[in-house]
Amino acid sequence: MKIIARDRKGREHIIEGNDGWTVMEALRDAGLPITAECGGACACATCHVYVEDGWYEKLRAPSPEETDMLDMALAVEPNSRLSCQILCTDQTDGIKVTLALE
Ligand code: FES
């Protein structure tokens, strides 16, 4: 599946995400500057992204753990998510995200 990812300089990258990976893993594998300090354990918020263009509503709601972590993140917006909590599936093919400021 494809992910359209905008970096912090506004450049758009179209990257591949293997089925079952998380969006964070795909971003990291593509060399985008995402820290993902905790490795996807929902314990750091350094994989924060903004989910764009109506994709936010299509995702499963964040878990209480993700919501707690986002409470501690900087520059949180209504479309903020942790990219390690978004799975690459047919349902997320074409998802558009922007890397959040750190
Ligand atoms: S990688 Fe740490 S919360 Fe997503």
What does this entry look like structurally?
By secondary structure, this protein is of the alpha+beta class. It has one domain: Beta-grasp domain (Ubiquitin-like (UB roll)). It is built from 3 helices and 5 strands, in the order E-E-H-E-H-H-E-E. The chain has helices at residues 23-29, 55-58, 64-71, and strands spanning 2-6, 12-16, 48-51, 80-82, 95-99. The chain has a 5-stranded mixed β-sheet with strand order 2-1-5-3-4. Strand 1 and strand 2 form a beta hairpin. The mean pLDDT is 96. It binds FE2/S2 (inorganic) cluster. FE2/S2 (inorganic) cluster binds next to loops.
CATH superfamily: Beta-grasp domain
Distinct small-molecule ligands in the complex: FE2/S2 (inorganic) cluster
Total domains: 1
The CATH topology turns out to be Ubiquitin-like (UB roll)
Fraction of helical residues: 10-25%
Instruction: Return the string of H and E elements.
Output: EEHEHHEE
- Share of β-strand residues: 15-25%
Cross-sheet strand order for the largest sheet: 2-1-5-3-4
Q: How many strands, which pairing sense, and closed or not: the largest β-sheet?
A: 5 strands, mixed
How many DSSP E strands?
Answer: 5
Dominant shape: globular
Alpha-carbon distance between the termini? 27 Å
Evaluate the radius of gyration. 12 Å
Q: Please tally the helical runs, counting DSSP H or I stretches of 4 or more residues.
A: 3
By secondary-structure content and strand pairing, the structural class works out as: alpha+beta
State mean pLDDT (0 to 100 scale): 96
Output the CATH class name.
Answer: Alpha Beta
* Low-pLDDT windows of residues: none
Architecture in CATH? Roll
